[in-house]
């Protein structure tokens, strides 16, 4: 209930009856103040008139007035500038640390707000606010989508900054880790990030001109050059075709030379994975990309269009993998280039966040602006989240829109944070 009281106060969704203190003095809310999500009073710099006199200060909100003492505010100087204690129920007189009694007011949540909030929390259909989506003003939708888009980019930036720290401040290395993670295309994202952190790029650089040696290091560090990682029915063929043994021998030499230790191969997931997404294929594609010197941050920063970015990331597999998905298992010849769909996702999840994060790091807006431009140029993702919003009547025009909706679902809908959502606000007041 306290969350609802916060919400009603913040948005001035007051009952139609006149507001008054517990002593019967009339209250007029001029400005509810700035909502504080950190320690201290709930709202800063509010302006209220009490019996016609203007008061400027802080507001504290509780479900019950006695919570003031329960939370220790009566001994906390930070709460001495509270001009009004707003409560769902006033069950006690309370004082600040100076021994001064607080002016208190009972605030009732309108029945319509309570009922609408209960509906949002209980409805089985996603999104729960689907009924009002078609009636929302275009400006309202655009403003919220823009905010969500920026919020999602900021979260991805934080993740990239953490990788930079893990890579001892090396942005080139952090970019490679980010790129590798997104080559996992969701299901193997964590495994690919762990793998990339096991790749000593300074060592690989010495062998950059030799694609076979790059692939040996990449496959070996993934833990995929051990015989027991191959399904038993393919082990004999893998040994007979010679490529597996040749790669393993080369890796053993390079591992000894550079003191390499592979990751745990059990981190890789194969269940219900399309063969095109097998780690062997994606690692071979990354090896080829690295060999072609198109896996560097400097090249990415020189892309000025989505087309440029896709050309940089376009890759294929080494010859062996044109006819294999795993060691020993022969398949129909396929170049196994990255599909347009995959390139679109890599631009959304790698190129755009890296440009934005690097731009913020360097204080160069041109990279941040380019990130937003790319989002507008890229096609939207086509997944169940996006389709459900489209079925509600929401227009999804580009990748910026789809990223915003993914952020909305993960950070608001899934967490039942309707009170923080602008669509939720529209639903509560309708």
List keywords for this structure.
430 residues; alpha/beta; six-stranded mixed beta sheet; 2 domains
What would a concise description of this structure say?
The protein is an alpha/beta fold. It has helices at residues 2-11, 67-70, 111-122, 138-166, 171-183, 189-197, 201-204, 211-221, 232-241, 243-258, 279-291, 297-301, 306-313, 340-362, 365-377, 384-391, 399-413, 422-429; strands at 27-31, 34-35, 43-50, 53-64, 82-89, 104-106, 324-326, 329-330. The model has no long low-confidence stretch (mean pLDDT 94).
Radius of gyration of CA atoms, rounded to a whole number: 29 Å
SS summary, helix count: 18
Taken in chain order, the helices and strands follow as: HEEEEHEEHHHHHHHHHHHEEHHHHH
Mean pLDDT: 94
The shape is: elongated
| Count of individual domains | 2
Record field, number of beta strands: 8
Structural notes for this entry:
The protein has 430 residues and is α/β, with parallel strands linked by helices. The protein folds into two domains: 2-109, no CATH class; 148-377, no CATH class. It has 18 helices and eight strands. It has helices at residues 2-11, 67-70, 111-122, 138-166, 171-183, 189-197, 201-204, 211-221, 232-241, 243-258, 279-291, 297-301, 306-313, 340-362, 365-377, 384-391, 399-413, 422-429, and strands spanning 27-31, 34-35, 43-50, 53-64, 82-89, 104-106, 324-326, 329-330. The strands form two sheets. Strands 1, 2, 3, 4, 5 and 6 form a six-stranded mixed sheet that branches. Strand 2 (34-35) and strand 3 form a beta hairpin. The longest helix has 29 residues, at 138-166. The two termini are 19 Å apart. 36% of the residues are buried. The mean pLDDT is 94.
């Amino acid at each position: 209930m306290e969350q609802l009281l916060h919400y009603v106060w913040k948005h001035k969704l007051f009952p139609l009856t006149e507001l008054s203190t517990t002593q019967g003095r009339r209250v007029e809310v001029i400005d509810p103040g700035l909502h504080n999500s950190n320690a201290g009073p709930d709202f800063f710099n509010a302006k209220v008139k009490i019996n016609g006199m203007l008061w400027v200060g802080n507001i504290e909100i509780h479900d019950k007035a006695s919570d003031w003492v329960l939370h220790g505010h009566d001994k906390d100087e930070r709460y001495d500038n509270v001009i009004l204690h707003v409560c769902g129920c006033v069950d006690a007189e309370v004082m600040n640390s100076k021994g001064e009694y607080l002016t208190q007011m009972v605030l009732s949540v309108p029945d319509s707000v309570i009922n609408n909030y209960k509906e949002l929390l209980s409805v089985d259909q996603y999104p729960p606010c689907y009924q009002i989506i078609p009636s929302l003003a275009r400006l309202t939708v655009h403003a919220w989508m823009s905010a969500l888009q920026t919020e999602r980019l900021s979260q991805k930036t934080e993740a990239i900054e953490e990788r930079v720290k893990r890579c001892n401040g090396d942005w080139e290395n952090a970019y490679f880790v980010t790129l590798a993670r997104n080559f996992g295309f969701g299901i193997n994202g964590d495994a690919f990030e762990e793998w990339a952190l096991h790749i000593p790029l300074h060592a690989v650089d010495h062998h950059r001109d030799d694609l076979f040696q790059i692939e040996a290091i990449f496959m070996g560090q993934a833990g995929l050059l051990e015989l027991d990682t191959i399904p038993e029915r393919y082990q004999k063929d893998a040994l007979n075709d010679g490529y597996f043994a040749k790669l393993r021998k080369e890796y053993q030499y390079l591992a000894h030379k550079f003191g390499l230790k592979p990751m745990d191969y059990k981190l890789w997931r194969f269940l219900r994975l399309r063969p095109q997404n097998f780690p062997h294929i994606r690692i071979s594609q990354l090896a080829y990309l690295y060999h072609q010197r198109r896996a560097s941050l400097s090249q990415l920063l020189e892309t000025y269009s989505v087309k440029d970015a896709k050309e940089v990331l376009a890759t294929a597999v080494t010859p062996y993998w044109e006819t294999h998905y795993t060691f020993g298992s022969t398949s129909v010849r396929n170049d196994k280039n990255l599909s347009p769909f995959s390139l679109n996702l890599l631009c959304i999840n790698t190129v755009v966040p890296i440009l934005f994060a690097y731009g913020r790091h360097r204080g160069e807006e041109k990279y941040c602006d380019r990130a937003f431009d790319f989002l507008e140029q890229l096609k939207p993702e086509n997944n169940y989240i996006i389709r459900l919003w489209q079925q509600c009547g929401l227009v999804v025009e580009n990748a910026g829109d789809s990223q915003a909706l993914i952020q909305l679902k993960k950070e608001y809908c899934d967490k039942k944070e309707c009170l923080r959502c602008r669509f939720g606000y529209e639903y509560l007041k309708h």
